[in-house]
Amino acid sequence: GRGCRAPSPAGWEQARCSASTRLTWSICTPRVINAEKSEFNEDQAACCQISIRRREPGLEEDEEWLILCSTQFLTGYYWALFDGHGGPEAAIIASNYLHYCIKQKLEEVVGGITETRPPMHLSGRCVCDSDPQFVEEKHIQAEDLVVGVLENAFQECDEVIGQEMEATNQTGGCTALAALYFQGKLYVANAGDSRAILVLKDDVVPMTCEFTPETERQRIQHLAFLFPKLLDGEFTRFEFPRRLKGDDVGQKVLYRDYFMEGWGYKTVEKADLKYPLVHGHGKQARLLGTLAVSRGLGDHQLKVIDTNIEVKPFLSCIPKVNVFDFAQHDIKEDDVLVMATDGLWDVLCNKEVAHVVRSFLAENRTDPHRFSELAKCLVCRARGKKRGHQWMLDDSCEASYDDISVFVIPLHKRDED
Amino acid sequence: GRGCRAPSPAGWEQARCSASTRLTWSICTPRVINAEKSEFNEDQAACCQISIRRREPGLEEDEEWLILCSTQFLTGYYWALFDGHGGPEAAIIASNYLHYCIKQKLEEVVGGITETRPPMHLSGRCVCDSDPQFVEEKHIQAEDLVVGVLENAFQECDEVIGQEMEATNQTGGCTALAALYFQGKLYVANAGDSRAILVLKDDVVPMTCEFTPETERQRIQHLAFLFPKLLDGEFTRFEFPRRLKGDDVGQKVLYRDYFMEGWGYKTVEKADLKYPLVHGHGKQARLLGTLAVSRGLGDHQLKVIDTNIEVKPFLSCIPKVNVFDFAQHDIKEDDVLVMATDGLWDVLCNKEVAHVVRSFLAENRTDPHRFSELAKCLVCRARGKKRGHQWMLDDSCEASYDDISVFVIPLHKRDED
């Protein structure tokens, strides 16, 4: 996000990362660094250890004192990036609150993960002997509970942001990318256009996909089809290859409706001249002419400029969660998770990032801060060099003018404290 | 589908395939064969050559006489399977009409495919010199127009079925699987639980995915979340691992809502005891306790038994279209497309079918009817053998009691007339 507010000091900065010193993942020294091209920064970051109390099954809420007495803990590790827009407030609240939501929700389900007799069978075995036809094999695993935790935590965090922003009369929203290492698996939850990839010795594994007005066109158009009033007669839900003009009326034009992955022809009518609900391509794609992302937190008050049309109904706060099981992979010493906001990925593709990661780590074998130095190096590459008034990449392409935040998280020896 | 009506003769039968004798795809001798276990058969099939007249660009509808004078033709080849339920009528109408819809829609867009200056740019070049910022590169290709044709043709066919069934006071619906070979590419459009795979020399390529209440749970639950009245207070939109009972109230239970791929815990309330919108697993999964598929044609009048709850709002008639470009593959002599209704795939997996295909064709090199014999062979395998009152597979598993229809379509030398 580009910004107003929240000025940050010049030069490199370890951004809001309140819990990083508490991290016991020994060799993990992630850094979040901002390109500092603009005076202001809307990216926010968080990382911390999440301690989960093991609740006794069957305990009611009012028996919380028993929980507090519990001495058993499970530990998770958490990293997150939030790219704010329309001000940094939503990103700040999210960076302070999302890990708390995750911790709470994990404690609610941890019985189902650790107990031998969870509240309802995770094993698929028959639990209703008198009525076996009602019991089905759903293959539900502990992993599915953690995925559910992340989905519910994002939704709760979005609600809190809505209340907080309304109470303090603030506006804005943010994307959210969160990684959770828990019980030998890495969960990556993404709502927005940030990205996380695993750079392994012989492989690059994408852990997220981007949610933009373009990638979610059909969901957005379908909602407008179901609730036409959401467009208030100001937008058309059809997609066209370009904005139509008055003299196109009566001509045949390519179009797509909500149910189409392919294209068709229609004869242009006057209503087709309205601004399209989803318009533009790539980084220029916009929802209602307003937002460049289709998922994220906040934006509860956001309206299309000079109208009463709300954007929030078209936004989703639900992340897509991808899981990586370390038990099924032989993790090597220089294998890392790279998380970054769109400022990095706009100018460097996965392959280029993987190349930088591998060559940097090969050339810097002994530096105890090699992973945070690598994060800096990646930001440097995307930030480019100033030539006159322009920032340029090495290959003379224009550099990223967006905020750039990067985590590089080593995956080897991750359970050593 | 299992059936009432539409009795078919005993033994093997080349089913409704009105246009097969007109096929000029020389070595192509597809057969549709029914298992004949039950007295009645709801599967329907169609295959034909589709001749597309090339319309002059800019011609209006009332200049149709000019089109009729046109002597230029493009040719497509079409195969389709329809698995009826609640009677064969919808499947019969679809088998008579879908290829006509496709032909009509193809003629509407064929200008965009063949003309050097199509109605609006397919090339992505700027067509609006006065306003270049409105022109975007969408990478729209001729292929995307054919995909759009199939999507729109399924929708139109569904409307026609609705009108026809209402006019004749009939009920029922059907799944639809259609393959179209056109301009060097194979398009496979699927709405339902039939399946098509390419069995190539060194590879098996799935060309469809199944649409069932289970695979489309989130879409279906989301609709119920947006329009709760569709459930009329009789169903719960939540998914549970098993049907809940009175004494579960107050207990913790695993559940999923529309936005969840993972699972969470909730405390069972009385409302959770209602029958679930999507219930059951695998072949037992049902939408509103009524239908085993979530996409298809027809079912406009279908209501949940003893209620006024309509099923149609939760159904989609839109196919997912997958494209296979022959130009990018070296097609070998025994490479085939296998299309079949769920009766086959319920008892044979892709790998088993591929094994039967390869060994049968290797052992039958010279038989001019080897492909239709192979289709018969596949049906035989899924149909099993009668032992007492049961039909059994070779490995003593129970055989398919459903109708079984199979097309085996050779892909080599496909353009020879």
From TrEMBL, chains A, B:
InterPro entries membership: PP2C, PPM-type-like_dom_sf, PPM-type_phosphatase-like_dom
Signal peptide positions on this chain: none
MF term (GO), any: [pyruvate dehydrogenase (acetyl-transferring)]-phosphatase activity
Gene Ontology cellular-component annotations: mitochondrion
CDD domains in alphabetical order: PP2Cc
SUPFAM superfamilies assigned to the protein according to its UniProt record, in alphabetical order: PP2C-like (SSF81606)
Boundaries of every PPM-type phosphatase domain copy: 24-411
Protein name according to UniProt: Protein phosphatase, Mg2+/Mn2+ dependent 1M
Lineage: Eukaryota, Metazoa, Chordata, Craniata, Vertebrata
